[in-house]
Structures
1.
Amino acid sequence: MKNKKVVLDRYPEALPVADVMSVQEEEARVPGDGEIQVAVDYLSIDAWIGTTLSPGWLHTLIPEGATVPALGVGKVLASGSLDFQEGDAVFGPFAAQTVATVPAEGCSVVDTSIAGLSDYLGLLSVTTGLTALFGIRDIGQVKEGDTVVVSAAAGAVGSVAGQMARALGAGKVIGIAGGPEKCAFLTDELGFDAAIDYKSEDVEQRVGELAPEGVSVFFDNVGGEMLDAVLEHIQERARVVICGAISQYADNNDVYGPKRYLRLAERYARMEGYTAFHFADRYAEGMKDIAAWMGEGKLKMREQVEEGIESFPRALEMLFTGGNTGKLLVHTGS
Amino acid sequence: MKNKKVVLDRYPEALPVADVMSVQEEEARVPGDGEIQVAVDYLSIDAWIGTTLSPGWLHTLIPEGATVPALGVGKVLASGSLDFQEGDAVFGPFAAQTVATVPAEGCSVVDTSIAGLSDYLGLLSVTTGLTALFGIRDIGQVKEGDTVVVSAAAGAVGSVAGQMARALGAGKVIGIAGGPEKCAFLTDELGFDAAIDYKSEDVEQRVGELAPEGVSVFFDNVGGEMLDAVLEHIQERARVVICGAISQYADNNDVYGPKRYLRLAERYARMEGYTAFHFADRYAEGMKDIAAWMGEGKLKMREQVEEGIESFPRALEMLFTGGNTGKLLVHTGS
């Protein structure tokens, strides 16, 4: 059996661009003791992948020539582990390839009777649904009547964070996104109260107009001047949740620091960061909470599916240039 | 009776410099109904005064020609209020002058049997002792064994914050100050475990050497690159307390934003700001706590006293150029 994998040919100069990666074919490896072989169905395109390709970030840099890491879902083809059987639907760090032979530890069987297979890369995944949950609920502490602003709001994490804010009782949910289509998606499909198109509008001015009462919680995935624009409007006791900074991943040594950070002192406010991994002991509990909201129809996830393993490099580039709406997936077609 | 007052002749270009102020003499005004006339003894030199002289900051800009605001202590000369009697020792917003006639509301009688008169501008004042207390205890949440770093540590607020951290059980207290004399003051007189001289040492490197376990709490009064240097070394769940940013008050429109703020996300850490005024309903309780520590000999305050109202402009300039150690006071000699 053949495996097609996406390898890193050379480090990108800044953001990950498609042409630093290429697809190679090899013989799929038979699983050894404690390993499973998986026919990968969907791969999750996440921002953290980009940080494994450029020096200085949170994640360890992968070597040139290595397969690009990614989380995926698929079906077990062969198992060298007692915990997995042929045909099981599984989630795991399969990397960007069509047939993955990986340690069974770190993978998990998923229940496709309660949610679709790809939901385990979206609403029910650590990097999307759980990231949004811990950020908006535990760090942001959204409560009844709060005014919540979400950046990168048409992205996977942002779109869920905004819906969760509403489910937690927020009085007003405002999303910031790029372009009229994404903005319409937020207000028309997801029930956001308002959307700001950062490509054509002055974010600082618009936040002031839409939230004259000030911002209680800002869930930020963008950083840079957008963070400053919202900091200008935070309320007293506001919570600014630093989930990510997609605008700043190009160069870790030249990050734009928020010039308005002294608003925190003026307004007895807080900026707190996290990754979902810091809540690792609460994944199971969090997935239950998300599943309950899904059952009540409170959470929608739009999926943008790119076809074929060959589309992986372009999909990753797209994530950093704002080309996607909702959860970006690669369907390997294996 | 004559009053000598310090007036603002023109706005400074950046930081307050002595020559934008001058001393004028006038007849002291007899107090009207609800007012008191006070012979001002000591004036407190605080950073917030600078922000009333330059546009765009927390405090309202004072008009040119106005008396420069300041907190002071003194004795009541004449009272138009039933709450105050001639001879009472009082604290209040007397402004930079020798004889103040001000509304009685906003002033308070102080008990000089439990602390010296000038302590009410230092350890027991809102802008110094209470600022340190609420910052290090309530925002910083210093607990047993924490590693605490304080910037502007030889200043009034910083020197108290460090001692309070120790009183709260911190395992290691490190101060950052300018020059060998201030550093010796911290370690030899105040019992800090170590001091870093930012004028001759690489702060980022030294914090790493002195606190290889990482920093649990950073109490920051400086901002700028010093904030970044310490952010690089924060522990998981660290609390970065934004009390002030004396390095950044020159130009509100060109504040240095902390480029390392993404360490907050990597380490599930928090940056929180405040002013003592946000804790206004807890002043009495806080003063009791501070008085208790004073009684146990756990808090020392060095006072640097400049003689004469004429020294006020120079003293204010000095605060922004790092010329003082401990609490900077002007003794009006009235």
Note: Chain B has a mean pLDDT of 95.
2.
Amino acid sequence: MANINQLLGLVAADMRHVEEKMRAGVAARYADLAAVVDYLMGAGGKRLRPVLTLMAASFYPADKTKAYALAASVELLHTATLVHDDLIDNALLRRGMPTLNVSWSAGATILAGDYLFARSAELAAETQNIRIVTIFAQTLMAIVGGELQQLFSDGHGNIPTRQEYEQRIYAKTASLFAAGTQCGAILGGASPKEEQALYDYGYHLGMAFQIVDDILDFQGDEETLGKPVASDLRQGIATLPVMLFVQKFPQHPIIRRAVSRESVSDKDMESVVKEIRASGCLEIAMTEARQLVQRAQTALAVLPDNQYRQAMHGIADYAVSRQL
Amino acid sequence: MANINQLLGLVAADMRHVEEKMRAGVAARYADLAAVVDYLMGAGGKRLRPVLTLMAASFYPADKTKAYALAASVELLHTATLVHDDLIDNALLRRGMPTLNVSWSAGATILAGDYLFARSAELAAETQNIRIVTIFAQTLMAIVGGELQQLFSDGHGNIPTRQEYEQRIYAKTASLFAAGTQCGAILGGASPKEEQALYDYGYHLGMAFQIVDDILDFQGDEETLGKPVASDLRQGIATLPVMLFVQKFPQHPIIRRAVSRESVSDKDMESVVKEIRASGCLEIAMTEARQLVQRAQTALAVLPDNQYRQAMHGIADYAVSRQL
């Protein structure tokens, strides 16, 4: 398996243009926000969404300038949702760095997120493609609608059904991965079959990616995670590992208290995290993620077998092999 | 001068389609949010933004379905910004009705606003016109950028310069009025000269409209206003009436305390409101608003003299004659 940095290297030069694009439009108009974008971008991450968007656009003779705008739009949309999410969750850390809401007032943080949404829409429009803009808007509706649904349903002691969980991780993660790769295809004028294939790739990879995130939330420690272990469960949110654990131990008292938003001591939380780790449920969840990755890779079969397809194949492997 | 309801009547049938469009797209996907849209729409108001958008589109053989989508997009964008503003300002009332943030958590209110932004972008894309989508995105950037600027500059004891005030009311109000009338023109394929005229109309009308809002904030009482008198000054924001008052009384202690966000008793606030009312500054501000309305009306001269132009002329008069 190729090293992830080698795979990303294929579009490294393009990504510098994308990052420039992300900063430039904001900096020109609003210095305070430019510093925020710099800060949020400095928080790192592999930027898989814009990378895959660029790769999806690279199968075709797509206009590079438009591809950069599209990729920047995808990453800024992602960033904007994180800014609002961290405020809503009162999260203090993201990737080990203080969140924006730690240093800015709630009002300024809300407006910063709104501004990034707007800039992201402007960048989507730079593709001059109305279907792309529509997908952009619908993806934001899916993401936000999913969060609202979660907000209203969490903490009532319910373990989500499989279907509810899938809707959730689609909204949270797969929708934007899929939108990015589909819009990359559209930008290049892909055939309907190829566009569908790239959508399917993004969708399944995004679903797998979120499941792996949900697994990683139970591994490592606060230092390596950059946030508390089991952060979702602490907020009353049951993800796949917990759902599988509850199938084995339906009446587990700590889980029941956690998903009802009753107080759970740190000691109890540590103890249930240990039980989940020992239960084999993380491994079962990982098997599901691997199956989704295989479906993502299978979808690529209709595309020309070039370096981009190979990189996208490898990045899918990375999604389930990544460590903290 | 024609009655405002007669003027609005010209597009009343169209506005029913617009309201349907505003509700339908949200209701189909998310019942809780549909109730919110109903609620926000029930709060009334003259809906001048979509009305003027429709009228601007009516000079030309514009596609009605697209005009409805555009007008709905403009009003939903406006609604979304109000949802976030009321949360940021912790406002409890809007047009005499409790704000969304009174009954919903901050998180749900943020997400509701985000969802309306997204839906509004989707509606803008229904026009199938990429210039319209771009103007839509840039208008949201202007609105939010203006608010951020205000957030960072208020409460430092500064009275805004004339230029700062104009930038503020452009961002807050004129930008969206102008975007609506300009996009209406674009939708119908107006000539560049006519498009500019309709932009100018919306811009000057919007500037006048906000000045009148700032005047009305010092008139009437809490019951007729549906919010406290001098609500801006209470938040440390100096608008045109206060700027004019400070020119006459540069060292007025209560104003200085208010714009420095130092505590001002209700009695002191009432007393300064009375002084401002008696100072003649509201009348000077109204004269400025009337001049802007005349510029808006003059801009209409290049357009065919039909019922839409006459209605837009009359609505501009209404903007400076409206009472609480």
Note: Strands of chain B lie at 93-94, 97-98.
3.
Amino acid sequence: MLDDGQNLTHEISAKIDFSPMEEAVGYRLRRAQLAVYQDFTETFEKEELRPADFAVLMLVSKNPGLKQSEVAEVLGIQRANFVAIIDGLEKKGVAERRKSDTDRRVQSLYITDKGRAYLDEITPIWRKHDERQMERLGGPAARDQLISLLKRLYD
Amino acid sequence: MLDDGQNLTHEISAKIDFSPMEEAVGYRLRRAQLAVYQDFTETFEKEELRPADFAVLMLVSKNPGLKQSEVAEVLGIQRANFVAIIDGLEKKGVAERRKSDTDRRVQSLYITDKGRAYLDEITPIWRKHDERQMERLGGPAARDQLISLLKRLYD
């Protein structure tokens, strides 16, 4: 399915004047990001797991008790989308909100036992997805080079 | 505003275990893309112009008469979002749908005279936005290197 889509795009692209978008940083970033997200979504189609769900679950498992606002901030997720992500994880029973011990007005996030088992199960599959991206790039050195360039755009 | 957001993120990030997302290709792409889009959105805040609006308008100006489906496909925009983008551009009076000469069931896209004037006005501002990204990366060579790596992920 992915291949058909890409071939179709190649066919159409061949007859199109695409300047000056061809070399535009934002546009190229968007296309690459969509391709990587598509691979992720296809990888976890049965799980109905999206990249942001995985990132939140991984972050919360390593840092139990982070505030909701901190998790959203660190991952660059907008508040409106973030609430839906946490609702989804709670519904699956893999994460939960709890009132903070130090400030009852604040909600902290925790992974559940079910969430830990789930994460153990999906992490190797995620690693394969990430390795596929590395292979497309041409290996670990190319991957490190890409990440170093990407960090310059927002660090 | 951008700086404050980034400083806050740095503060929170300092105390957080972020493995294995730290070096994940998809996650890093997403963060860089968000930063570049944020710069774009702030640049064109008054115009209420989003990156996809600009890409569509630029593409249609260079390739008048492309089918809606072709434009969506080439830019990697989902159908549901694409309709809203074209509705917005028509409402602004800068682009228009017309029935295709060769197939009346197909809608083709055109830029209007107002759209051409608008594009002439905003293109230099867009170029400055794109140059800011290039400067953040470290110059034209770094930009070309980034784009070459990004293309490997979806070409």
Note: The first strand of chain B starts at residue 66 and ends at 67.
4.
Amino acid sequence: MKCRICGKNAQVHLRQHNLALCRDHFVERFEREVERAIRRHRMFDRNTPVLVAVSGGKDSLAAMRVLHRLGYNVSGLYIHLGIHEGVGYSDLSLQKVKKFQETHGLPVHILHLEQTFGYTIPALVHRRRQQVPCSQCGTVKRYWMNRYAVEHGFPVVVTGHNLDDEVATLLANNLRWDTGYLARQAPFLPSTHPRMAAKAKPFVYLSEKETALYALFQGIDYVRMECPFAEGAKSIFYKELLNRLEERSPGTKLRYYREFLRFREEVLSSHTHPGVELRTCTVCGMPTTLEVCAYCRLTSRVGTQV
Amino acid sequence: MKCRICGKNAQVHLRQHNLALCRDHFVERFEREVERAIRRHRMFDRNTPVLVAVSGGKDSLAAMRVLHRLGYNVSGLYIHLGIHEGVGYSDLSLQKVKKFQETHGLPVHILHLEQTFGYTIPALVHRRRQQVPCSQCGTVKRYWMNRYAVEHGFPVVVTGHNLDDEVATLLANNLRWDTGYLARQAPFLPSTHPRMAAKAKPFVYLSEKETALYALFQGIDYVRMECPFAEGAKSIFYKELLNRLEERSPGTKLRYYREFLRFREEVLSSHTHPGVELRTCTVCGMPTTLEVCAYCRLTSRVGTQV
């Protein structure tokens, strides 16, 4: 196969677009798609300090790299979860992040959950066995990501969620027809509270394969293992099913997601109230829909807060 | 396992309800669920002559049987599609229908597509290779089912679509977020044109397994083979995926469908116009959304109409 742009040997074939590209033109296209998503959803401009939620995986490191290359004002935040399972998952991830920081010269702040939250994720899971680890871990990570951004002058938090992540979440919300969750699933959520950073996902139109290739071509070394606590997670199962759909009809995921966004705009936004009124958590002062935020409800259940 | 009602040996286990039942209590429950669906959606009463679209398969024969047992005024219509492929699919189906008619003493009218439409389904498929057979066959069958009902005094057409059929269709519409198709997918569609029969699907809350068991327990002999033209159909592929979801989380299909109906009621019905204004086909006088109905457009493309 030849690159559709320059006719040289293609290194990438994107089945969903029936498009073969050489390495350089793949990278060029990838960066153009990121720029386009940022503009289309008015995520942020080049003057805005953005904080990328960095896990040590391909998506978040690729996000830092591409935003920097596109001239954005980017910093990272790595939250150390204290997961020593899986041959030291958290330490291994941190190593990759530090290596990235040295190689690419981009600042990454580090926050230890054990210090801020009082528990590592395994300690939390151990205390609250009845709940799914991913959901609790998500609550804690989102809380600290937002709080760090707000307290350190970052109006926007960027996450590396790719198309495969988004459609897996979409399918989960869709199977329950959860109007609230569907209405809030967007590439960009603006801030609606003084202590809330906007949330931006510039990779939502790019597949997992594309972000992995971009990371590879940019020489990014990343953690390849899944979090050991994610084993058997529903999201992984949904991704498998969606992969089967994509295999049979390339382009299914992108269409499912794009058409959802149109539907959301046309149908859901006119139906649901434009953004639930956010309140201020009476315990910690961060935004919440209830009187006490999900994070403070969790800490009050597990006890001790640092 | 014991029957939850009477404590005798259970013959059926409905995982989605975590319910074990003996044969008699399964039948009782099945019939109660059908009655409940008919009432909930105000489909028809015991005085209304209803026409069941009979294919020779388990669902449609079970539908005739259960409606009769519940005291409804029921007749069947079998449309002979002229499919000789698959060791004589259509003739085999007709045999099963005739046997059912004799055994259960219920009237089934028979219509030969070659006489009314001028083509058998294989002849049509042969002429219009570019299209998916199921979609064309559906247009022709729906047209004649409705026309026969209207011309013979049946205000309601009943089909045996079960939960598995409905969620497969729902998933297909859902992956495209097709607002129009989603808005029209309902257990009951009332008539909105003088030459349109209402469409009722009393099995939508019952799984394929349940209708098969009911048919078995009622001594119904039915065609077990799939239509030979349906091989590789997307709907079969979607059913497989949905079966995997159901296996992992029993009850997923029923929740997906029920929550969809709630969503449709709450969100879609207020958004979309309540029923597209139906027009009258300028060729045949039957209802249509365009100037000429889908059936007449098809016949004008393939030529000859009887």
Note: The longest helix of chain B spans residues 85-104.
